[in-house]
Amino acid sequence: MNIEPVFIQEIKAILAKARANAYRAINVAMLEAYWQIGKRIVEEEQQGAARAGYGEGLIKALSKELSAEFGKGFSVASLENFRKFYLIFPSLEKSSALRRKLSWTHYRSIMRVENPKARDFYLQEASEQNWSTRQLDRNIQSFYYERLLSSSPNDQEELEVPTTNLSAIPADFIKDPYVFEFLNIPEPFQASERELESFLIEHLQQFLLELGKGFSFVGRQFRISTEGSHFYIDLVFYNYILKCFVLFDLKIGSLSHQDIGQMDMYVRMFDDLKRQTDDQPTIGIILCTEKDHTVVKYSILDEHKQLFASKYQLYLPTEAELIAEIEREKALIAQKK
Questions:
Q1: Beta bridge partners of 323
Q2: What is the separation of C-alpha 335 from the centre of its chain, rounded to a whole number of angstroms?
Q3: Residue 58 banded pLDDT, cuts 50, 70, 90
Q4: Looking at the 3D structure of the chain, how many domains does it have?
Q5: Residues 170 and 314 occupy one common structural domain
Q6: Claim: this prediction has a pTM higher than 0.85
Q7: 226: which DSSP letter?
Q8: What is the distance, to the nearest Å, from the Cα of residue 205 to the centroid of all Cα atoms in its chain?
């Protein structure tokens, strides 16, 4: 008997959807259980606060009992994580407060972030952008939140990535520095700007994740033409949250005033020739390996709200190096205020 392929696909889709729904239901139920266990541990510790070492002994004894009854998953380390889960997220008592798309592994990673505002940011972005646990870990390790904060002119202690077009601010979507360690380019890097462009296109999915929220690819070596000349922009994207085109110019080496002037021309031409009536003004971003802050300070880049220069790094720096770079950018922004 021949069965129509469409019929088979429909049955498979039904089963896949059912399994996904079952997984989400189980995930939420387990998150609620872990939170409740953490709450009861804290409450019991508080009742026994007068006894030295009561909390430590309590968790060890509880681990032994639960492991004997339910098997793996209730080690001392796991129970300590449940306790931490409750202490860090005390408002999750109502299941509606849980980020249902996030797993326990997501929450464990976010719990390791010390800054409460950064934790809230990662919760929101991981849920809304469907980050895998691997992508979440990569963003935390590469200081995604802090890199956005370093380029924002807003309060340097807080970053709220807008969710509506009306409140979207270009600077809140631009990192400094960008990290392209996913290219796996061996050191020392000796490629040309065109080769770097090709590497990024070959790893477009990872590049889009590094760019952040709302970016979609439009084209490479995008041609814009006037009556007598043709110009080619390295990479063009559209950001559906900002509702504007975003142009990227790749530079091997330090930023120069010629680079800034060229990008300014590209942005003006793109606004004139490609921008639609319902689009916001085009944004231009120059990606370079080094920034001469004197050039930045005394060029149109310092005041132009649609032009940006960001460093990029081809290898994931150490935590100390990345923090130092972020702090340097934050200090420069603070000087402008």
A1: none
A2: 26
A3: confident
A4: 3
A5: yes
A6: no
A7: -
A8: 13
